[in-house]
Amino acid sequence: MPRVEPASFLTLHYRLAGPQGDVINTFAGRPATLSLGTGELAPAVEQRLLGLEEGTRTVFEIPAGEAYGERNPDFLQWLARKDLNELGDPDEHYAVGDIIQLPTPGGEGQIGAVVRAVREDGALRLDFNHPLAGQPVTFEVQLIGVL
User: Fold this and answer.
1) pLDDT digits (tens, 9 = 90+) for 56-98
2) CA separation (Å) from 42 to 49, 114, 145?
3) How far, in Å, CA of 36 to CA of 14, rounded?
4) Which DSSP helix (H) or strand (E) runs through 126?
5) Residues pairing with 127 in the sheet
6) Average pLDDT taken over every residue of the chain
7) 128 with 75: CB under 8 angstroms?
8) Are 34 and 10 in contact (CB under 8 A)?
9) What is the 3-state secondary structure (H, E, C) of 93-141?
10) Could you give phi then psi for residue 36, rounded to 5 degrees?
């Protein structure tokens, strides 16, 4: 049977969960396809896949902070409504818990943030930390195909 190597192309079902539950779970739908080493999974998650045989189904418990780093207080930032209007839809209304996408500083991509607070003037307190930063992670995987 094929085994996972550093540059393998994988078809798999997987679930990433923290203490509050699932963040990603493909088991109820279509499997994911991805290439190792391209940043689609955290390095700590990819490391646990290496050497596994096609057909394997297993669960890994990853200690707090290892998969997605520790929470960084500098990643909590206020964004003025004026700036938000320039970056997106000026008519959009935001609520605590919303996930929004903003352009990266260079404009080549996007970065997600969670709305943690909304001021009366419309400014948002945004959290750019990964949702699982600083938390233990459960990683469940079923390897369907390894190329």
Assistant:
1) 999 999 999 999 999 999 999 999 999 999 888 888 999 999 9
2) 11, 19, 20
3) 14
4) strand 124-127
5) 76, 114
6) 95
7) yes
8) yes
9) CCCCCCEEEEECCCCCCEEEEEEEEECCCCCEEEECCCCCCCCCEEEEE
10) -70, 150
Computed from CA positions of residues 76, 82, 83, 84, in that sequence, does the dihedral angle turn out positive or negative?
positive
Q: Residue 111 in 3-state DSSP?
A: strand
CA 80 vs. chain centroid, Å, equals 25
Looking at residue 123, its pLDDT comes to: 96
Six-digit token string for 109: 């991509």
- Rounded to an integer, what distance in angstroms lies between the CA atom of residue 136 and that of residue 17? 8
Which pLDDT tens digit goes with each residue over 120-139? 999 999 999 998 999 999 99
Residues contacting 88, CB < 8 A, separation 6+: 100, 102
Tell me the residue type at 53: E
Sequence length of the chain is: 147
Q: Write down the H helix ranges in the chain.
A: 43-49, 81-87
Contact yes or no for 35/41 (Cβ under 8 A) = no
Instruction: Give me the pLDDT at residue 90, please.
Output: 87
Gap between the Cα atoms of 54 and 144, Å rounded: 6
Q: Using an 8 Å Cβ cutoff, are 24 and 18 in contact?
A: no
